Amino acid sequence: MHRFHDAGMPLPAEVPGGILALLRAEHAHVRALFHSFAMLDPEEEAERERLVDELCQELLLHATLEEELFYPALRESAGDALLDDAALEHDSARELILQLESLFPGDDYFDATVAVLAEEVAHHVAREETLLFPLLVRAGADQALLGERLRARRLQLEADLAAPPAGIDGLEPRGLLRDAVRGLRERRTRPR
Q: What's the confidence (pLDDT) of residue 95?
């Protein structure tokens, strides 16, 4: 499944282009989006709404990628408790994203919900980067291979999201991520 480093060889902290470098870059991108939101004037409602939608989509994509690739690579070395906590943090972020689907800038609780989401994401990122990232390095997992898989899966998910919604035919939805992000798109069609 994963190639591991020879026990006699020193482990690199982070492989360029590897999964940890990619996840760290995604974390930085999300921090920058939260910062951009915080810098906007409350009167810039359209831009605030666009940024929150982008943030929510990025967070949903990121959580999916971590759950499909990063957490399974850690399962043996991290133990269930740490990974269960991380999964609960993802669930909490998804709940806040669902709340944001029904809110618009200017609504009561819009700014507060974004602020709580930012705080929870910051806490989650700090835990991952200080506790989970080093565990992956110590496990000797092939960061480059996992990085390739992460890039390929992200492209698949983005293509799925960009595809026009399938017609209603009574079949199951094509994927959980599409359903999670669909609410963000549908919000634009509802009257305020």
A: 98
In a domain, 9, yes or no: no
User: Looking at the domain assignment, is residue 171 inside a domain?
Assistant: no
Tokens of 152: 């390929």
CA distance 40 to 82: 36
d(CA 150, CA 155): 9
Predicted TM-score of the model (pTM): 0.80
- CB-based contacts of 63, cutoff 8 Å, min separation 6: 90, 93, 94
Exposed / middle / buried, residue 51 (Cβ in 10 Å: 0-12, 13-18, 19+): buried
Q: Which residues of the chain have pLDDT under 50?
A: 1-11, 174, 188-190
| Residue 170 is assigned to a structural domain of this protein | no
Helix ranges (H only) for 4-132 are: 19-39, 45-65, 71-101, 110-127
| Residue-number span of the structural domain to which 84 is assigned | 19-158+176-187
